[in-house]
Write a structure and sequence with these properties.
This is non-specific serine/threonine protein kinase. The chain is of the alpha+beta class and about 450 residues long. It has three domains: about 160 residues, 2-Layer Sandwich (Phosphorylase Kinase, domain 1); about 210 residues, Orthogonal Bundle (Transferase(Phosphotransferase), domain 1); about 45 residues, no CATH class. The chain contains twelve helices and 16 strands. The strands form six sheets. The chain has a six-stranded mixed sheet. Strand 8 and strand 9 form a beta hairpin. Helix 5 runs antiparallel to helix 7 and helix 10 packs antiparallel against helix 11. It is globular, with a radius of gyration of 25 Å.
Length: about 450
């Protein structure tokens, strides 16, 4: 199926002018049976194209051929104004490092075959931290990659100086928004583990393709959530093709986000799949603690979450309870938290080869997503009668009497010890709100 075009192809050639890297031919990953889907193959090509394979002189033909079968739509600016009501401020969702994001709606009459649906329209800020190359990288990768835990790119626009991406709309915005926004209801423990599992599956898919992809900017703000809290990776502007043949790493300019980037990548510029694993470990600690990867408002010792938390992740339940997110209000599986903490500890190893692979992480998280531990029932206090006996005994009678002390007036006081908690009470209600993206603070030229 040909890429659908909204205007003449002549203007597209003006969109690709920054290509100084040598052309590298990359072979298309083969699709195996009974596994999660691999990158889409072009009917007319046996390779998966990279953004470095495209040059300005053959852009129109290369892009059309390589993305044939991907069902990407090429929108023109007039159509995007209709979709977003002229980028109305009432449809503004927020702004990230790429640029402003608006909610829009595609009418089923806009294009034949394009179903009616809400969309997120991301417009490149030409004065921002990202540019044409990141826009092109996003189009090329998401135009060929399809997976349940990668956000779906519906189409793009490259008209004059305008660079726009059109995605499926993710109703709950980013994990960063849901986890750290002030005055919102806390994400329940089971939802946090579900999100971690989905994100891990997305990374595992990228790493295990025949031609691996290194995501390079895994962080809470790049994990988007739909109405059911299904997590999908977004923003592929910094993604890189992984090492080929006997190469062990990709040497590249250091880019990413403070607090998430692996230490060996910051020091050497050597990028590997283990770099993504480290970033995943940081996000997992964010889910456990409710703290941001970098927080300048804290003391110097606690500003970098990974450095501060890692020594405490293997201290057992007593030590772990001190750093768990207080907004969970002890509504979590203690055993499940210990297992997740151990996994995060391994991901944050300063020795890249000691970190688990994403497949190993998926296997470790799958049982935690549905982990339920029987809770000890809550204590019910009943005012004593004249003979100082309660008319109704709690079902947990034996446990109650262990923790029950009596004062001089004959009143009972109940004390629950930290190690007796099993962290299961009623789950918090779902949050129904849209994203409030914040500008990313990018690392460049480190």
């Amino acid at each position: 199926m040909k890429v659908k075009k909204g205007s003449k192809s002549s203007w597209i050639s003006n969109c690709f002018k920054i290509h100084e890297e040598p052309v590298r031919m990359i072979r298309e990953p083969e699709i195996e049976k009974k596994v999660e889907p691999e990158p889409i193959k072009s009917p007319n090509s046996t390779k998966r194209i990279s953004y470095t394979d495209i040059n300005s002189s053959t852009l129109s033909e290369d892009l059309s051929t390589s993305l044939a079968g991907s069902n990407l739509y090429v929108f023109n600016l007039a159509e995007l104004k209709v979709i977003t009501q002229s980028f109305s401020s009432c449809n503004f969702l927020g702004e990230g490092g790429f640029g402003p994001v608006h909610k829009g709606f595609i009418d089923d009459k806009l294009r034949p075959g394009l179903k009616a649906q809400p969309v997120a329209v991301k417009v490149l800020n030409i004065d921002g931290g990202q540019g044409h190359r990141e826009w092109l990288t996003e189009v090329v990768f998401l135009g060929q990659l399809r997976h349940p835990h990668l956000v779906k790119l519906i189409g793009y626009c490259c008209e004059d100086e305008h660079r726009v991406l059109v995605y499926e709309y993710m109703a709950r915005g980013s994990l960063e928004n849901q986890l750290f926004r002030r005055f919102s209801v806390s994400l329940p423990w089971s939802t946090r583990m579900k999100i971690a599992l989905h994100a891990a599956k997305g990374l595992a898919f990228l790493h295990e393709a025949k031609n691996p992809v290194i995501y390079r900017d895994f962080k809470a703000s790049n994990i988007l959530l739909d109405s059911d809290y299904t997590a999908k990776l977004s923003d592929f502007g910094l993604a890189k093709d992984g090492p080929e043949g006997d190469d062990t790493h990709v040497s590249t300019r250091v880019m990413g986000t403070h607090g998430y980037a692996a230490p060996e990548y910051l020091m050497t510029g050597h990028l590997t799949a283990a770099s993504d694993v480290y970033s995943f470990g940081v996000v997992l600690v964010e889910l456990l603690t409710g703290r941001k990867s970098m927080d300048k408002s804290r003391s110097n010792r606690e500003q970098n979450l990974a450095e501060w938390a890692r020594p405490q992740l293997k201290g057992g339940a007593r030590k772990l309870n001190r750093i768990m997110d207080p907004r969970l209000e002890s509504q979590y599986s203690e055993t499940g938290a210990e297992k997740a903490a151990e996994l995060a500890y391994q991901c944050l190893s300063h020795r890249p080869k000691a970190r688990p692979t994403m497949s190993m992480i998926v296997n470790a998280l799958e049982p935690l997503a549905d982990y339920n531990e029987m809770a000890i029932g809550t204590f019910v206090y009943t005012a004593p009668t004249e003979n100082n006996k309660s008319p109704v005994e709690s079902p947990e009678k034996e446990v109650q009497h262990k923790d029950r002390k009596m004062d001089s007036n004959g009143h009972h006081h109940h004390h629950r010890h930290q190690h007796d908690r099993r962290h299961h009470r009623s789950k918090s209600p779902a949050v129904h709100s849209e994203t409030d993206l914040q500008r990313d603070h990018m690392i460049s030229g480190v």
